[in-house]
Specification:
This protein is of the alpha+beta class. It is built from 19 helices and 9 strands. The strands form 2 sheets. The chain has a 6-stranded antiparallel beta sheet. A 3-stranded antiparallel beta sheet has the order 7-8-9. Helix 4 packs antiparallel against helix 7 and helix 7 packs across helix 9. Keywords: ATP-binding, Kinase, Membrane, Nucleotide-binding, Serine/threonine-protein kinase, Transferase, Transmembrane, Transmembrane helix.
Length: about 425
């Protein structure tokens, strides 16, 4: 449908086909209005017919137009054109002289130093895009353009990110390239900056070895290996520094990869400066140390919390244990009451009868004096006539006395005193 000489929107004349894939084709074109060479990315008609995808693609094109970075290909224009009776979407970008990394790797692999330099530059470009919320999702050698001076530019930004993960084109091909597709994109359809980190790790592996870590007869077989197989080890000639950068980027779990493209770029520069130092272990040690410190703080916090809260519950338990003790002490006041009961009825009524015995005890000292023979003659004359008068009053209180105190002794004394009286 497209070919050399096709003009889009009466402005962009296609001249040479640069490359293509499941998403569409890339052409070298001429801007008739401004008189400059550009690169035009033309989407397949199957994707253009989806209004949702077209809207997302347009939004991404606008976002890319605001992105300015030396490692990112500039975006000039976006539009729709009718070719052969079908509407297609296209994206006009900066034309970068040089050749793609794909063509370079077909000739020979790169040295570890050149690979780390390329990884650092591409990571910087990805970090700039991620900072604005743009995820490339199609990082591969065909989208990396190497300028004549050796600098690398990343192209085709936002195209894969605009489509939903796992969506298939009319030809049945997945939007991401199978050889560089992160495992989470094939399972959970997660779109995060970590998928670009993984794809860049695959590119670095290919630069060092000249081949992909996983291959197969079909894209499904390749995706399956991305999910379940470990990548073959790198050659022994690769130093520990570059080896660690690539190995960590190819982790299956996004949490175990480099935390960001910026961090991966810094690690690549350290590996370039000191290739013999295993860089991948340092971040792991720091992560392990951070987790250890966090676990220690969590354990100490829980212990302190348990010790802080523990006295409150025993106090309540003691209070509940003391409650039955208080109930058991209830009978002890009953003992005091029992002690109070006998004195209340016995002591109080006994005191009034004790007063008459006091009056009766007044004559008792007299019998102590009366044993002399002279005393019996004197009492009948003066003292004994008044004594019978006090005796009748005690006779009235005497009935209660026998109920409490036996009056045997006082009655004997009175009889002995009364015998000489009559």
């Amino acid at each position: 449908m497209l070919g050399a000489g096709t003009t889009l929107s009466d402005r962009y004349r296609l001249t040479t086909r640069i490359g293509g894939g499941g998403m569409g084709e890339v052409w070298r074109a001429s801007d008739i209005v401004l008189g400059r060479e550009v690169a035009v990315k033309v989407l397949t008609p199957a994707l253009t017919e989806h209004a949702t995808f077209v809207q997302r693609f347009q939004n991404e094109a606008r976002a890319m137009a605001t992105l300015r970075h030396p490692g990112v290909v500039d975006v000039y224009d976006y539009g729709l054109a009718v070719v052969g009776g079908r509407t297609i979407s296209y994206l006009v970008m900066e034309y970068v002289p040089g050749e793609s990394l794909d063509l370079i790797l077909r000739r020979e692999p790169l040295s570890p130093a050149r690979t780390m330099r390329l990884v650092a530059e591409v990571a910087d470009a990805l970090a700039a895009a991620h900072a604005q919320g743009i995820v490339h999702r199609d990082v591969k050698p065909g989208n990396l353009l190497v300028r004549p001076d050796g600098r690398v530019a990343l192209g085709d930004f936002g195209i894969a990110h605009s489509a939903s993960a796992g969506q298939l084109t009319a030809t049945g091909a997945m939007l991401c390239s199978a050889g560089y597709c992160a495992p989470e994109m094939a399972t959970a359809s997660d779109v995060s900056p970590s998928v670009d980190v993984y794809a860049l790790g695959v590119v670095a592996y290919e630069c060092l070895t000249g081949r992909l870590p996983f291959d197969g007869d079909t894209p499904v077989q390749i995706i399956y290996k991305h999910l379940h197989s470990a990548p073959p080890p790198l050659p022994d000639s690769v130093a520990p520094g570059p080896r660690g950068v690539v190995t960590k980027a190819l982790e299956k779990s996004p949490e175990r990869r480099w935390a960001s493209a910026e961090e991966m770029g810094l690690a690549a520069r350290r590996a370039l400066a000191e290739p013999r130092e295993p860089l991948a272990r340092k971040p792991r040690r720091t992560l392990v140390g951070a987790f250890a410190v966090g676990a220690a703080l969590a354990v100490s916090a829980t212990v302190v919390g348990m010790l802080w809260m523990r006295p409150a519950t025993p106090a309540e338990d003691r209070a509940t244990l003391f409650d039955p003790v208080v109930t058991t002490e209830v009978p002890t006041p009953t003992r005091t009451q029992v002690r109070n009961r006998p004195p209340a009825p016995s002591a109080k009524p006994a005191q009034p009868p004790k007063q008459p015995p006091n009056t009766t005890h007044e004559p008792k000292p007299k019998p102590t004096v009366t044993p002399s023979p002279t005393l019996p003659t004197s009492p009948p004359t003066s003292t004994k006539p008044p004594e019978p008068t006090p005796t009748p009053p005690p006779a009235t209180p005497e009935p209660p006395e026998p109920t409490q105190v036996p009056p045997a002794e006082p009655t004997g004394d009175l009889q002995c005193i009364k015998e000489p009286c009559p």
